[in-house]
Write a structure and sequence with these properties.
The complex is a heterodimer of chains A (321) and B (397). Chain A has 16 helices and nine strands. By secondary structure, chain A is α/β, with parallel strands linked by helices. Chain A folds into three domains: 154 residues, P-loop containing nucleotide triphosphate hydrolases (Rossmann fold), CATH 3.40.50.300; 30 residues; 97 residues. Chain B is of the alpha/beta class and 397 residues long. In chain B, the strands form two sheets. Chain B has a six-stranded mixed β-sheet, with helices on both faces. Chain B is flat, with a radius of gyration of 26 Å. In chain B, 35% of the residues are buried. The chains are: A alpha/beta (321), B alpha/beta (397). Chains A and B meet through helix 6 and helix 7 of A and strand 1, helix 9 and helix 13 of B. Chain A: One of its GO terms (molecular function) is ATP hydrolysis activity.
Chain lengths: 321, 397
């Protein structure tokens, strides 16, 4: 198969694919190289998934960095990233493959015009691979020069059960069966990362085929590290206060706790407002970046925020001594 | 094959085809040892794991000594070796078995028909009619049994919603190009168009049922109702709440109703205690709502609205619950009383936030519920309106 695409593949292969990490330490280093601050448990789960060629199933609240893991993987390993964003009603035609009907029609007309009488031959003609439109799932089974791609199945919980059932075959044997064409099997299995926000419980049968990892909110130390990497312009004082304040917020009884993404956004918002430290007014003005529910904002705004801030300042002062 | 009849009466799904299979199987294997017979029949009659203990006991009782049955019926507590691990379960099983075998006794030819046992309630049609209108609270045990059976046989239609999946349909509106091309290769000349149509499905159903003291007479019936709908369809989630909230969905998936209820009983710790409706709905909103209310679920809230804590924070939580589901239906057993007005603070807090407000105290009202669920009303029906409607109906009746 030599196509224009293959040529660009050769160019990309110059930036040859990096080998998979050989131990947990290597996995940690790999994530670090991609600016992803992970804790050891996550690195272990990821390492096992890579080593044993099983999908990694990441579940967790919105904004804790699940999707980011797949992106970082593809970037640091130099693999292609195939992203399948799920939604209700996602079907095989948009997830795996589709026949190119118009081209098939034309082919039939041409064959008729040429007086082609042999229907069987025609059938094998119009169901050839050139009439197949490949979607992410099918693409992921085709290794390229850089090695197997990273397949990100994002927010699987948004799909419905039939689609989940369809995934079972792909995730178990890394193969897709196309009735008109036969079974397509991956030479080297792709690196599969599945994420879910838990808006619905995923079926046990699918979870059984994966390594499961619950991505939790980071502790203060790790969150500070993340801020240093992702929002380097924030001063030390501001970063510390921001992290401490968010950690305090997560202990409150809120409907939706702020995730890491919100922390980073908030730090950047404060930088844009030229803040070097937190003050009650500044918090009140920017609370909408952190909290996304009106009830939550009403609960925290004003005296509660000031009170939390006082605690934060006192604790940081005590730690500095 | 009296044995097969006994098993059938005890609740195993055994049709005449199975009986013929069993006879053939015995012919093929030959009547050798008891063990051979046991496993031969086991292979034919048992096709689910949860049927095994029932079959096991039935076999031993039946083939060991038919006379044992009479003794057993007299004492109602059999002297068979029962594994002690799950006493509740085996007792329930044995009770069913006893019923089944007792029914069989009188059918045996050449014997005097014995006294019918009280709970072998073969109801006439008029008795059924009576049951339909009878309050759960006033039923005797035998009637309860019959009601449970009726609930189990009940189907709960829910309005169907179009999904984004298709199935081939001659009367469909859209052209299914893939199928069209495949058929066109078969015939010659013109291309025969194949059509498809959107598949329809019911939305997920979430049941929140109150099991506090004031609801205790109903909660058992409601459990049977939940068990019936859980096993009737997919995407059903059931929660119980009293002073705390517990998710019993998995326990109810057990096909055998007695086993399922035993599991639920073991899991839930706050039977017939107080109620913290506000707290429990808050917990549901915080922990479960995002996980089970996706994809436009319909919520059934079964409670009498009597809250021990004076309905603190209930209104806000109800509002949130209402806004995160497709439809919120409140089933209230107290509604049966003429002149009931939702005066309790809890009830007053709930009422503004429900789409529909129904009584649920007898089989008729459960059947009506089915009718309500199967039509999609205007969204955000003012419940107060439906309540007034209901009262007007009463006045007319």
């Amino acid at each position: 198969m030599t196509s224009p695409a293959a040529k660009s593949l050769k160019d990309r292969a110059a930036a040859a694919a990096k080998p998979l990490p050989s131990d947990v330490e290597g996995t940690l280093a790999l994530l670090k190289a991609g600016d992803y601050v992970a804790d050891r448990s996550l690195a272990t789960a990821l390492f096992l998934a890579l080593k044993l060629r099983r999908p990694l199933f990441l579940e967790g609240e919105a904004g804790v960095g699940k999707t980011e893991i797949a992106k970082v993987l593809s970037q640091t390993l130099g693999r292609r990233l195939l992203r399948l964003q799920c939604y209700e009603g996602l079907d095989i035609a948009s997830a795996a493959y589709e026949w190119n009907y118009s081209r098939q029609m034309i082919e039939i007309r041409l064959a008729e015009a040429a007086g082609e009488a042999n229907r069987d031959a025609l059938a094998s003609d119009i169901y050839a691979e050139q009439f197949l439109v490949k979607r992410p799932l099918l693409q992921s089974l085709e290794g390229d020069l850089e090695g197997a791609p990273v397949l990100l199945i994002d927010e699987l919980d948004r799909t419905d059960e039939p689609f989940e059932a369809y995934l079972l075959e792909i995730l178990a044997d890394y193969q897709i069966t196309i009735p008109e064409l036969g079974t397509i099997k991956a030479g080297t299995p792709p690196i599969v990362v599945i994420t879910s926000n838990r808006t619905r419980e995923i079926h046990d049968a699918l979870k059984r085929r994966c390594f499961y990892y619950w991505v939790d909110y980071p502790n203060a130390e790790r969150e500070l590290e993340i801020l240093r990497v992702k929002a380097p312009e924030a001063g030390t004082v501001l970063a510390r206060e921001v992290v401490a304040f968010v950690q305090k917020l997560r202990q409150q009884d809120l409907f939706k706790l702020p995730g890491v993404a919100e922390t980073i956004d908030w730090a950047e918002a404060l930088i844009q407002l030229d803040k070097v430290a937190l003050d009650p007014q500044g918090i009140d003005d920017t609370l909408g970046v952190l909290l996304k529910y009106q009830d939550d904002i009403a609960k925290i705004k004003g005296s509660e925020a000031a009170h939390l801030l006082q605690q934060v300042k006192a604790e940081l002062a005590a730690a500095a001594r | 094959m009296y044995f097969a009849r006994a098993l059938r009466a005890a609740g195993l799904p055994i049709g005449p085809g199975r009986v013929i299979d069993a006879l053939r199987a015995i012919e093929a294997v030959g009547i050798g040892t008891r063990e051979d017979l046991y496993w031969t029949l086991h292979a034919v009659f048992v096709n689910r794991r949860d049927q095994q203990p029932l079959y096991d006991q039935a076999f031993h009782i039946f083939w060991r000594n038919p006379q044992l049955l009479e003794k057993m019926l007299q004492t109602m507590l059999p002297s068979v070796a029962v594994p002690r691990e799950e006493p509740e379960k085996s007792e329930e099983m044995l009770r069913r078995l006893a019923e089944a075998l007792a029914g069989r006794q009188s059918e045996r030819p050449g014997e005097e028909p014995q006294d019918k046992i009280e709970f072998d309630a073969a109801m006439t049609f008029s008795a059924r009619e009576l049951l339909q209108g009878m309050d759960f609270e006033k039923m005797s045990n035998a009637e309860m049994e019959e009601a449970k059976r009726m609930i189990a046989a009940m189907r709960l239609p829910i309005m169907q919603l179009p999904t984004r999946r298709f199935f081939p349909d001659r009367q469909g509106r859209r052209i299914d190009i893939r199928a069209t091309l495949r058929t066109s290769l078969r015939g010659g000349g013109a291309i025969p168009l194949q059509y498809k149509r959107k598949r329809r499905r019911h939305p997920p159903l979430v049941v929140l049922c109150d099991i506090s003291g004031s609801m205790s007479r109903y909660s058992r019936m409601m459990l049977h109702f939940m068990h019936a709908i859980t096993n009737d369809r997919d995407r059903v989630h059931c929660f119980l709440f009293g002073t705390r909230l517990s998710n019993i969905t998995r326990a109810l998936r057990q096909r055998d109703v007695d086993l399922a209820l035993a599991k639920v009983a073991a899991k839930v710790e706050d039977w017939s205690g107080g109620t913290r409706i506000g707290g429990c709905i808050a917990e549901f909103n915080a922990v479960w709502s995002r996980r089970v209310l996706g994809q436009g679920a319909v919520v059934l809230l079964i409670t009498d609205g009597l809250d021990r804590e004076g309905a603190q924070g209930l209104a806000e939580e109800m509002e949130r619950l209402h806004k995160s589901c497709r439809r919120l239906i409140w089933l209230n057993p107290l509604l049966r009383f003429e002149g009931y007005e939702p005066k309790a603070q809890g009830a007053r807090a709930i009422l503004p936030h429900v789409d529909d407000f129904r009584p649920v105290h007898n089989l008729e009202s459960l059947a009506e519920l089915g009718a309500v669920l199967s039509r999609e009303p205007a969204r955000r029906l003012e419940a107060a309106g439906s309540y007034a409607e209901l009262m007007a109906e009463r006045g007319a009746a």
